[in-house]
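Exercise 7. Given the components listed, write out the predicted structure of the assembled complex. Treat all entries as one system.
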Amino acid sequence: MISKNQIKYIRQLEMKKFRKREKCFVAEGPKVVGDLMKQYQPKAVFATDEWNQGDKIPVTEDELRRISFLQNPQQVLAIFPIPECDSDIPHDIHQLSLALDGIQDPGNLGTIIRIADWFGIDTIYCSEDTADAYNPKAVQATMGSLAHVHIIYTDLLRLFNSLPPSYPIYGTLLDGDAIYQQSLSREGIIVMGNEGNGISDAVRQRVNRRLLIPSFHQGDRAESLNVAIATAITCSEFRRRDTQ
Amino acid sequence: MISKNQIKYIRQLEMKKFRKREKCFVAEGPKVVGDLMKQYQPKAVFATDEWNQGDKIPVTEDELRRISFLQNPQQVLAIFPIPECDSDIPHDIHQLSLALDGIQDPGNLGTIIRIADWFGIDTIYCSEDTADAYNPKAVQATMGSLAHVHIIYTDLLRLFNSLPPSYPIYGTLLDGDAIYQQSLSREGIIVMGNEGNGISDAVRQRVNRRLLIPSFHQGDRAESLNVAIATAITCSEFRRRDTQ
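Answer.
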């Protein structure tokens, strides 16, 4: 049984302002909730009889539908604390990280977090104007990978200033060099830009390794790749070099 | 000015049954409509004053909102004829093609069409139980690439039966060989499977080149890649070989 106040509270967690104040977020479904529970202690778990992986507030299918952000609610909805991420922790310069410069779509952001997890990238730096990783749509798109990747919202220029001189900062740009033939380092930061406008001017000036994903279509067309797709191809290229 | 009947007609085009009967589909926004208009003659174009690329039925912002399938309608909505695709045309064995085996999500399907376009793949074979490429969500996700890629709904087993013996049929499978080290041919069919279940048993038996996209995360976790992401990485690997 779920109270009206609980329903209201959960629904409000759709809003970033509210999530920020309450320092918690919503995750749904056995896979996503299960993965997060291995890392974080949930504040509350609302689940139908089908789900039996721990303490829960039992709800009916109908009650779950009323609190869920999904079109097809899946057994369980849980509230987790937003992990504290100290943006002052120095960047581990011996690893590969991602920096997102103004990604707007929560689905793209969640998909990128899932890609990072697959390719063993532990840290994603997000510019302050990047979508919120704890938005319900982003959380679902991560498919649980939010439990394995550190998300740090920070000023990207300040981050770059903290790095050694000539530390590799990669970006995919229209005037970059075809990624397939480039030598790619095992350490560095890969910047991915906004869906419509790409990497912002100020950040672009700090990119010192300019990459391009070449297209193979015929004719002079203005096609583009979705940013999550571009991220996947880029990360795949970096990791391929490690296997050879 | 738009009539009630027009509004009703357009809204009904959200349904596959209705699209099939009327042999037409809806596309929206200057980029998608513009790209399709270069290939296909629209049956009707509804557009606000902002849009001036041809004959149109003028509509107000409010009217556009009433017919649009988008959260944020963009200037123009057009109705196009569904291109006739004869599934009996023999497969061009000298090119690389995709075969989709039960892709369910229209957004994934549209994204895959966009990826195919980028990588110069002209033909996508879809199993009959794959989502409809003319679903409004799929059309939007293609970002206009629907104008450049042939979509053929067919029985995949029948397609495979029409091919020369030992013609390369690639699939990404959990027991495949890491794609980065495989030799990949310039011709062949790449099969991508259903979001939850992968490639169906019957189709899997016909895959004669088994690939795997290796993961690089630590620990024994059951992570996965979204099917559109896996398609992008796979196509990128095939085309990379052409550039070296």
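Discussion: The longest strand of chain A covers residues 169-178. The radius of gyration of chain A is 20 Å.
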